[in-house]
Design goal:
InterPro entries: Actin-crosslinking, DUF7910, Fascin, GH, Glyco_hydro_5. This protein has 507 residues and is of the alpha/beta class. Helices cover 30% and strands 22% of the residues. The protein is built from ten helices and 20 strands. The strands form five sheets. It has an eight-stranded parallel barrel with strand order 1-14-15-16-17-18-19-20. The protein has a six-stranded antiparallel barrel with strand order 2-5-6-9-10-13. A two-stranded antiparallel ribbon has the order 3-4. α4 links the parallel β14 and β15. The longest helix has 24 residues.
Length: 507
Amino acid sequence: MAPYSKTKQCLCLCIFLCCISFAFTRDIPNIQIRAVNLGGWLVTEGWIKPPLFDGIPNKDFLDGTELQLNSVTVGKYLCAESGGGTIIVANRTSASGWETFRLWRINETSFQLRVFNKQFIGLDATGNGIGLVAVAETPGGSETFEIVRNSGNSSRIRIKAPNGFFLQVKTEELVTADSKGDGNWGNDDPSVFVMTNRGGPNGEFQVTNGYGPIKAPQIMKEHWSTFIVENDFNFISSNGLNAVRIPVGWWIASDPTPPLPYVGGSLQALDNAFLWAQKYGVKVIIDLHAAPGSQNGFEHSSTRDGSQEWGLSDQNIQQTVAVIDFLTARYANSPSLYAVELINEPLSPGVTLEIITKYYSAGYNVVRKHSTSAFVIMSNRLGPANPTELFPLASGFTGSVIDVHYYNLFSDIFNSMSVQQNIDFVYTNRSAQLSQVTTSNGPLTFVGEWVAEWQVTGAGKLDYQNFAKAQLEVYGRASFGWAYWTLKNVNNYWSLEWMINNGYITL
């Protein structure tokens, strides 16, 4: 018994030491991630694949479209007085925030109009029923209007109120819904407005609500089954990439019957991705790209109208944590699951450090409930924020990663930069920024989005090659790795597939 007892003791000691070793080394990735984002697939971004929107009736009147309306008789703009909470007037000579209305689409001709302070235009129930106010926080029937376009000039419109009459401007301070709307569309008709359409987001909410509940399922399932296919994973694996970052939306956790206007089917597509990833030896990073309420107001977060309303309540945070719980539980046993990104690009100051810290703590815990090996990625906030602000939180977690996104775009400082200045910026500024978020005892660093596109005009192929090479060299120093945005895109330099096939990038 003595030899066996000693053997058993040695075995226990080895296991104990291995556990200690694992606890101290599991923050070190066993591979350097060289990934590509599968953007525009399970979370729609219209600029990536514009034809996806082509079949929508009145596709320039999608949710979140911003309209400014000039009265032809008084020559001034409709306005929500004080930005909302009171009457509608027509007394502004120029248009900005208070004179801009965001559409909520009911169908191709009926809409609700949201004002600057987020109330909705409706009929004044306290008066004679023809006055206009913007007081409703939640829209209903009395806040639903029909927009009628002039067949000869689509920028000239009338707005039909729920009482059956049309809006008209009687004076600058008196806008009512009591016109028959049967005039000649001329400048003497107080029910006619000249519309300025400032556009709006083209995301998942817009495409599904635009097509409606009958056609949207057909359109989206066709898109999911053709935009990314098995052969793409073969291409990824064969070209020096070892991972994909897959953006998903919060509604995927409710598949196959997500809340309207979303449609079921994206979960099956994600299941397919995991099968293909395993077949071709590709790791998967699940990225919650669109959180309920929108964490940044951009179309890629599936905002309805550009509003940023994620994280404003405990219930909303708990709902988001539940999505992470669902996804991690579903894929925890897959050998392809490498990391879970808790949220993409939360925007400061709307998302405060307190809010994001609370969420990241809860999200980390639910990932660890299902997996001890999956890395947990926490995206730095966009906007005014300290790039190291998550260190105190993330340093206390095992397997934690900070995600930073670097684009030589979206800022005026790049507008006049030459080719060489852009390349120098990568080698100097980006190197310094990456070093700032890279510490020996802190979280790992991940350049989760970058692209070889810039503001430079007239650049040649060699210029693009050198710009891409500089970024690959610098971002290759990130302790976790990097991910190009994105695999496929109608804009060539944003498509890694096109860049590789045409010799702009070699991995």
